[in-house]
Amino acid sequence: MTAPDAWPRARHWVNAAACADLGELFIPADGEPSEYSTAKWVCRTKCPVVEQCLASAMAEEGHADHRTRAGVRGGLTPGERARWYRQDARARQAAARETAR
Predict the structure, then answer these.
(1) What is the DSSP-derived secondary structure letter of residue 5?
(2) DSSP alpha helices (H): ranges in the chain?
(3) pLDDT of res. 31
(4) CA distance 39 to 42
(5) Which residues pair with 76 in a beta bridge?
(6) In this predicted model, what pLDDT tens digit does every residue of 61-95 receive, in sequence order?
(7) For 9-59, what is each residue's pLDDT tens digit?
(8) Burial label, 14 (beta-carbon count in 10 A; 0-12, 13-18, 19+)
(9) Considering Cα of 16, then 20, then 46, then 81, what sign does the dihedral take?
(10) Is 8's pLDDT higher than 80?
(11) Contacts with 47 (C-beta within 8 Å, 6 or more apart), sequence order
């Protein structure tokens, strides 16, 4: 096994994630939103790296819609992350317009 110091610095947080051994809980086989509530609870109440996880998900998924996103990441479902990305993109566009004035 490679020493943590040799791993990419941005991914150190993955080892501390509360979901490390709970894969099926975070990506339910049937993809039903009702399956997400326990995973979201784990993220929001037990995970010390939820912010890093969400930031990673948003960076990796970018402008993808909810159909191409998978599982609970950073405490949000695929649809929630897609909505948040769209809202954030609109806010960035508005800020850029204000700056350009």
Answers:
(1) G
(2) 23-26, 36-46, 50-61, 78-100
(3) 59
(4) 5
(5) 73
(6) 887 877 778 889 999 998 899 898 888 888 888 88
(7) 556 788 889 888 787 778 777 656 667 888 999 999 999 999 999 999 988
(8) middle
(9) positive
(10) no
(11) 17, 18, 19, 53, 75
